[in-house]
Structures are given as structure tokens and as C-alpha cells.
Fold this sequence. Notes:
The structure holds two protein chains of two kinds.
Chain A: E1 2-4, E2 7-9, H1 16-25, E3 28-31, E4 36-41, H2 45-52, E5 65-71, E6 77-87, E7 90-95, H3 100-109, E8 118-121, E9 126-132, H4 136-144, E10 156-161, E11 164-169, E12 178-184, H5 188-201, E13 205-207, H6 209-218, H7 253-262, E14 267-273, E15 285-288, E16 291-301, E17 308-314, E18 324-329, E19 332-339
Parallel strand pairs in A: 3-13
Antiparallel strand pairs in A: 1-2, 3-9, 4-7, 4-8, 5-6, 6-7, 9-12, 10-11, 11-12, 14-17, 14-19, 15-16, 15-18, 16-17, 18-19
Chain B: E1 9-10, E2 15-17, E3 24-28, H1 30-36, E4 39-43, E5 50-51, E6 56-62, E7 66-70, E8 75-80, H2 83-86, H3 90-93, E9 102-106, H4 110-113, H5 118-125
Antiparallel strand pairs in B: 1-2, 2-3, 3-9, 4-6, 5-8, 6-7, 8-9
Amino acid sequence: MVPFAGWDMPVQYTGIVEEHKAVRQSVGVFDISHMGQLIVSGKGAEAFLNRVLTNNITKLQPGQGQYTLLLNNKGGVIDDLIAYRTSEREFFLVVNASRIDADWAHIESQLTKDDDVMMANASDFTAGLAIQGPKAREVAAKVFGSSDSFPEHNTILVTMTENGPMWLCGTGYTGEEGFEFFMPAETAEAWFRKIVDAVKAEGGVPCGLGARDTLRLEMGYPLNGNDLSEDRTPLQAGLGFFVDLNKDNFTGRDALLTQKTAGLPDKLVAFRMTGAAPPPRPHYPVAHASQIIGEVCSGTQSPSLGTGIGMTYVPLSAAGLGTTLEIEIRGRRFPAEVVKKPFYRKPSV
Amino acid sequence: MSNIPNNLRYRDSHEWIDPTQDPSPVGITDHAQAELTDVVFVDPPKLGTQVSAGQQVCVIESVKAASDIYAPVSGEIVAINEALSSDPGLLNRDPYLGGWIFKIKTSNAAQADALMNAEAYRKHIG
């Protein structure tokens, strides 16, 4: 067990590589109870959130969700999150555990007395499980007794139970098909046992934080705190797709437009070790043309590829595909090259 | 149940040494490899290095973490296991035989006697 954002969480149950491969080949279940859930509702909720978040929330129909970002005035990333429209006037935000308080404070600070908006923090009484892998659909059918209960990608199904609401979200952090299931905390243990049984019946296993990290990094998904910070913009992080610069003003927009005109100072790139090397890990120095130019943000050994992979911010002059970098590990430099994301692509059937 | 051979001596940081051989092979225990899982890289010590008991001498890397390996006794590193450079998984599959990491020519045989025996190590890992 390791401390993570105030929670004690397992790094692994049986082994990172075994758990990782289960998710790629069959299915795995992750405890994601640490994640936060904020509910923003009211007549003014859509307009308010569109002012606070980078993606265009007006594009969402009830039942749909989108990846989006919460920025400070400098355009720096406070958090990356999924925003779902659960009804015409209600939105369900799934945020990072370590940022729940910061997100709440930042969103609340932007409320004006003219906004007809209510905010609720469901994080403390809500637990969550992520079921991920090609057999996730079978697990959903078995556990919920119907194949209708599987949320398609970026959609949400909300069910009211006697203990409170349950949210089924068609998202994940692994690159595989799957869903994230948030439920009243007091029902979590029973659900976990039921789902673990169904997962095992499909040849899968429960998975810890270790496999969650290797799976998301193989897809090149950023992790807040490693790859995203309040000092860098989503444009630098390569997340411009989730920023709608054409919509009306939103927090951070001016800073992004200024940066776009001036040019990016650096950019998040994916790199892969090119020879036998220890796995690159966060904070290892990164060199280019003999000069240290930064540090590893995320890094690990890719179980699917069998090589070290990582992400790092580099000046644009070193960001081109095929550029040679060196990762300094315990005083020795090992070669790496800038590669395209994702690191891992599903073999075509 | 972890395999803990009776003929070896153990450090609390989970290295084993076989003091009945000269030079003495050193590796990590079955318990340690099971905890680390999936060793992917062994950064070996330099041949000919003089080390003191308790000194950090090399690093093994699993997907999970980098782990320091400490010298169980003082002496000179006289051999390293080249097989681990192409097959680090040997450490997981065969921690006590094929998975030895280095051999040390000890300058102080009494140091090995002061290490834990199998029974003490079994208690240590609980």
C-alpha cells in the first residue's frame, strides 16, 4: 500500500505486469474511490461551466460527456476532468483526487451573484470502480443482469437506488473499452466483491495503481501532477483539441491566445528508450545535444512493448519525431528518441 | 510460502550470500523477488570494486520501483552475472541459483556469521 492523495492504495494485487496484461487481453477492475465527483446544477449551470472549463460544454446532450480542463488565469492547468451532462440543468464532474479541494475553491471563486447555480461535492460519500478491458461488456452484463447497462464511450447512465445515485460512465484511463462506476460508499464493498467475481470469471484480475499508471502511459494520457501543472498550458501539454478557443470567454483563454501568438516555449513529447536501459522514472534529467533541457514527467517500463517509455517537456527544437534525447539515470546517460503517441496500439483483429 | 534455503545467510534488506563458496555469490531472496515482481533491469556493480558491508553496491529495477542492493559483507566484487543483462527475469524465476547478481571475495569472513540464518530471516519477513 502507498499513500496517494490522502488515500492508502494498493500499487499492485498480484503484479503490475500480470494486471496490465489482463486489462489488455481480458479485463481488470480498479478501485477508483479516491476520485472526486462534483455536481453543478441550476438554470445557469451550462453558461457558468462554459466560462470555467475549456471544452465547449454546450455541445453535450443529456447523457453525454467530454474531457475538459480547468485553468487558472495564466492558462495553467488546475485539473483535467470529465464533464457529463446528466440532465438539461445538471452536470457531473469527475475530477482528480489530489485536486478536489483546489477545483472546488477555484470553481466557487468564479461564481457571481448573477449565476443561478448550485454546487455539491459528492466525493466523500461516493466510491468508484473502473472495469477496463475487452471483456468489460461481459462483466457489465453479468453484474447488472442486462447488456443495456453498458455505457457507450463518453456517455453516462444515472440510476437512483435506495442508497443514493449510481453513475455508470463510459470512460477509462487505459485505452481499452470499459466503464467507470460510481456508487454510494456504503454499497462499494458488496459491488467490489461482485465485480471481482465477474472479472475473474472472464479471466481478469483486480488491478492496482501500478498497472493504472503503465496502462495510461502506454496510451500517452497525461497524469495531473506529473505531466500537467499550473505552470503549463494545455497547448504545451498537447491538449489543444480539448480547448475551444472559438467559444466566448473562459478562464485562461486570453493567456492561451497570447501564448499561441508568441509561440510555445516548450511542448510535452513522448519518448522511448532505444537500447537496454533502466526504466525512465519521474524527475530523471533529460538531455539533448549534451545539454540538460528538462526532466522526465511520467516514465515507466512498458509491459506491452518491453522498453522504457516516458513523457517530457522539451523546447520545440527538440520536439520533432525521431529527435535523440538522453535520459540521465544514476549519473549515466541512456539514449531515447521522440516518438508518436500512443506508444501502444491495439493489434488489429 | 517463500523459499528460504538453510545454507545461506541473509541481510535484513533481503540480500542472501552463500558464505560456503569462495568467492561468495550474492542475490536477492525469493521473498524480495515476489515483492518486487517483474524485474526488468539489473544495473550491476563494477568489477574490482572494494565495498564495505552495508554499502549500496548496485540497483535492480522492477516495473514498480528501483531497489538498492547492499553488500552483505566487505570485500572485492570479483564477478558479475552477465546472464542478467539479457534476461533480468532470471531474478524472479531462479533467485538463488541462476539469479545470483555478483560474487564477492570477502576480506572478513566473520561478517557473514553475523548475518541472519534461514530461521531468523523467516521470522524477519513474518
